[in-house]
Amino acid sequence: MNENKAREYNNMGNLFMQKKDYNQALDFYLKAISLYDEESVFYHNAGVCLLILEEKQRAITLLKRAFEKGTKIDETELYLVSALYEIENYSDVLSFKEKRNNKYYIDINMLKLKSAIKLSKIQQAKKIINTLKMAGFNSQELELIENMLWR
């Protein structure tokens, strides 16, 4: 019973997200979580709202919770790593273990590369560059970073 009501609240949150009423959407997502706290999508959705509302620390907490609940949403990984990078938590960005088949694998590893540089972990940065190249990624930005590191 609570699970069905929670899903209704989540759907209401989705409607408010479409209307760009993020505070109202967040309220519904949090209600959904309070009724049924086993659904990872509820945490993901609330985390996204909080990112939009610029409440990154709260967003990180909820996005991490989505992982604990077994999220299958690729964007959750990207949003979490991006938020960690934005609050300058470079160590957590570097230690994040993304799924290899995540469609945002390259984006996540670029944030890891930039974090390694910010922390002056040049060897780790070089390994990330090699990982990106082995995944078939190449860009002007990557080449510039590579040239800077191998000087």
Automatic annotation (TrEMBL):
Keywords: TPR repeat. The keyword Zinc-finger does not apply. It holds the Pfam family TPR_1. InterPro entries: TPR-like_helical_dom_sf (IPR011990), TPR_rpt (IPR019734). It comes from the Bacteria. TPR repeats lie at residues 6-39. The keyword Transferase does not apply. SUPFAM superfamilies: TPR-like (SSF48452). This is Tetratricopeptide repeat protein. It comes from Oceanotoga teriensis.
